[in-house]
Amino acid sequence: MKQPLVGIVGPCAAGKSTLIRNLSGRGYRLKHIAQEHSYVPDMWQRLTRPEALIFLDVSFEESNRRRPMPWREADYLEQQRRLRHAREHADFYLLTDGLTPEEVAAQVAAFLENFASHP
Q: How many domains does the structure of the chain reveal?
């Protein structure tokens, strides 16, 4: 059975790339969607048309701890605004603050196993 195409969205430093790396080789069809950089609210749908959408979130403080970036809280809030449509349509939402990459991968994998078994 072919796995569903799963889109991964979220603000910078939420763990999207790490999640995809951690789940690679397990048969999942995962696509990082850079919605946080788009002014088009539904770009995630237009480009990818995923069968499931996962939203990884992170607080401003945690994002700066993970990856010090030259940005202000206003920049973070703008990313959150750009991501609103995707967040509202996400099949699975996970705040990654306080979680290890392995814990994030385990929670997402559990969701995907359940999602794939209930089409």
A: 1
Q: What is the pLDDT of residues 24-76, one digit of tens each?
A: 889 899 999 887 877 777 888 878 889 999 999 999 999 999 988 788 999 99
Q: Which amino acid is at 81?
A: R
Residue count (the chain): 119
Tell me whether residue 87 is exposed, middle or buried, using C-beta atoms within 10 angstroms of its C-beta: 0 to 12, 13 to 18, 19 or more.
middle
pTM of the entire structure? 0.91
CA 51 to chain centre: 14
Domain ranges, residue 60: 5-117
Amino acid 97 reads: D
* Dihedral angle of Cα 69, 93, 81, 98, to the nearest 10 degrees: -30
Q: Residue 100: which of 40, 19, 33 has the closest Cα?
A: 19
Q: What is the CATH number of the domain that holds 83?
A: 3.40.50.300
Residue 32 in tokens: 């990082």
